[in-house]
Amino acid sequence: LAKCSHIIMDKPRKELSLKDKVTLIKSHESTGKSQCKLAEDFGIGKTQVCEILKTKAELMTAFEENENMDRKRINLFKEDGHNKINNTVWCWFKTAHGINAPISGPLIQEVALKYAKDFNI
């Protein structure tokens, strides 16, 4: 059998903390570095840099509201009405599953639409 020493394994995705994300944003604004250069500097992918810059306003708001600076994943959409629907449908699902009721994808969609209408979303 031939040895494959030339195969490069993908490195695991690196998650930046809120503090690091804010540092990246400020670096982008002050130096005007390209996304490629920022990705290289922070040891992350270009797509991650793009996503961080897209959610810049929400990240800066979380930073200014003194969120946990070491936290890596932040729910940026806390007040979103869709979370209310998701949580309500999840509770319904757990209840229905607990009583062994038949559940299907279309039924879950129907319940979600009903709650959306009830919540005026």
UniProtKB/TrEMBL annotation:
Any Pfam family: CENP-B_N
Domain of life: Eukaryota
Coiled coil regions, renumbered to chain: none
A GO MF term: DNA binding
Domain HTH psq-type: 11-60
GO CC annotations, alphabetized: nucleus
Protein name as catalogued: HTH psq-type domain-containing protein
Organism of provenance: Latimeria chalumnae
